[in-house]
Amino acid sequence: MCRLFGLHAGPRPVRATFWLLDAPDSLSAQSRREPDGAGIGTFDSAGKAHVAKQPLAAWEDHAFAREARDLKSTTFLAHVRYASTGALTMVNTHPFEQDGRLFAHNGVLHGLDQLDQRLNKLGVMDLVLGQSDSERLFALITAETRRADGDVGAGIAAAINWVARDLPVFSLNFILTTATDMWALRYPATHPLYVLERDPTAAPDPSAPLDARSKRIRSKSTELSRSPHVLFATEPMDPNPGWRPMESGELVHVGRDLAVTSTAPFPDAPARLLTLADLEPTAAASQQP
Q: Positions of the region Disordered (predicted)?
């Protein structure tokens, strides 16, 4: 399945080094599990979003994902894609940018024709450049955020409640970020999503740098060795016991000052909850752990 990683460093930009394919297993094993895309989103000192991404089809060079990238930002969003909907192209590769916000998704939803009708009605179909369900979900959130006068939390709640009521859903896990705020949703309980509020000053070794890694994403930052920060990830990325699995339906918001709030504004489960058996073979394969 796709891998998500979000890092909020607080009000001051910090440097972090990213690797997007950091698996320790053999090349022969990797060749059977190469991703379909990889990307990193950041913000510059003026708050402008920047995205570096590449559709990593089997015939393309995978150097983009394997080489380290040194970046500076207040928030970071990384994604490794295993395609469920949409071709292996740049426009279908995460993160996506809309209205100065960045978005990455892990999951599948059906009923895209109905979703397109909704996007057309809301006047945001022009935001959709590719074929993926993820970009369409983001466009719906963007439309509802505009209708809520820029209140992203309200936009997320309106969009996800509409999807949960009207569309077949397998998973809607995502991270959405600006330069100052980050939101993460786990819904429903199909896939895990974890959050860690990391305070290095309270750790046994307060001088230890951040070194978070999974099978596909790694982030390292010496600048975060003494300042608090918040992480989101598809799986715990270090031995820190503070990693907490988010609840199904939980929406977590991290503000500029790293204040963390949690709400659950959604029904217990979507009205039409999909299983792996309901998905096309390619989509089903992309959602395996």
A: 199-224
